[in-house]
Write a structure and sequence with these properties.
This protein is an all-alpha fold. Helices cover 68% and strands 3% of the residues. A two-stranded antiparallel sheet has the order 1-4. It has a two-stranded antiparallel ribbon with strand order 2-3. The longest helix has 34 residues. It is globular, with a radius of gyration of 25 Å.
Amino acid sequence: MQTVVEKLRFLYKPYVLAVLTIGYIAGELGHYLIGVTSKATAIELDYGDHACQQNHTEVHRHMLPQQCAEIDVEHDCHRLHLNGTVYCEWNYNGLGLEYQLLAGPSFIAVFTVMGVVLGFAADRFNRVRLLTLCTAVFAVAIVFQGTVKGYWQLILLRMLMAAGEAGCNPLATGIMSDIFPESKRALVMAIFNWGIYGGYGIAFPVGRYITKLNLWDLGWRVCYYGTGALAVLMAILTGTTLKEPERKSIGEESTNKAKVPLVKVLLQPRVILLMIAASIRHCGGMTFAYNADLYYNIYFPDVDLGWWLFAVTIGIGSIGVVIGGIVSDKFVAKMGIRSRVACLAISQLIATPFAFGSVYYEPLWAMITLGISYFFAEMWFGIVFAVLVEIVPLQVRSTTIGVFLFVMNNIGGNLPILVDPLAKAIGYRGSVMFFYAGFYGISSLLFLLTMFFMEGPKPVSVDEGRSQVEMGHENNTFQPDDFINGVGGPKPNGYGAVGKRPAESSRL
């Protein structure tokens, strides 16, 4: 007779996915909370820029004789009134160079370096123990962010948080790859990586409304205490209830392949262009992530957009990710790798004018255009890495992805620091437009240029085509011996050095 444990064994896999995903959401929530709580944090910790801001949300902007944001002198700010009531205040606005350093470089610099280190460690040590340690580290760092008394304490704790969170993706990905069968792996990875949107989207209502409640007279600090407590719980569950799975081989096992020089792979024009385009696109997304709440609070102080931003980022952003993967896998991939890149270029091009609209229009149309923009813009991430794994050899695939992420996160995550100096020259709205919507458009052009360096579809025989369809993956863009003699093109007979067909030699 089966025991209760044996009967419930089928629940273990979804339980692992739930624990890992919730832990990832907690980490991303801690990462993005600063963008929503920055004004309250700056007022208390004394950092960033001062500005004239509307202090009565019950007063509508169209009723005011002059907008607060138009004033850049403190004395003039205090003189503005409506029927004898002063409606502006001169205070910290949560922006400035100090904020941009706090949101971007302090986190990204540590996150990218530790991501590479922990990625290597994941192949050599017990992943569950490492993940437990990483989750505990960023959990404690988030909790202590609620206790800080100064700006530099916050900087150091965000760096510590980044060190812990950097291990979440590589460690969790390895664990799930060994637990779930290949037929469910793509869906599982999609659910797990939704944690990025979950944490980012939840940050809007948590950072806005929990701070306003001022529970126990702690204000914004409660957001960090609560998020850190959730992360601590996930660290405990990870360490006490998850088991290190047996490592399983994924994809090709051949040991007869010639070693492919990593440098030659990275110096391919198509890899370099794809990396630059992805970095520019990532900068656009991070600019919006770090500035959205502050931007809408400054320009529309009388309109509460917290739940709108939550719905758009989590709901529509998540749908865009899924749809992008479906379009790429089911339709575009059948037309060759070049069409995948075309999908990138087209999706970002469509998203660009709507991204401009989201920072140009009044609140209603700003949210409508933001939703449309998000739907198309968020298709990019999955497709970029689908392209990358198909244009690099298996032997250096993981290393190439690690280098790609390192470059993309450092460029895309650190460039938004330039929002502040440009804002002082052309205004905050113009600066956000340029680095957010403008970089969407620039990335679209770069993806389009990258497309011309990709292989087009190749004719295949009936038997070969049937074989590829049965395996569910077509990739004629890379052969295992492409770089043996320094030659980047495919072999005329369509076979690699070890006699395997392209579709066989490039499966993940």
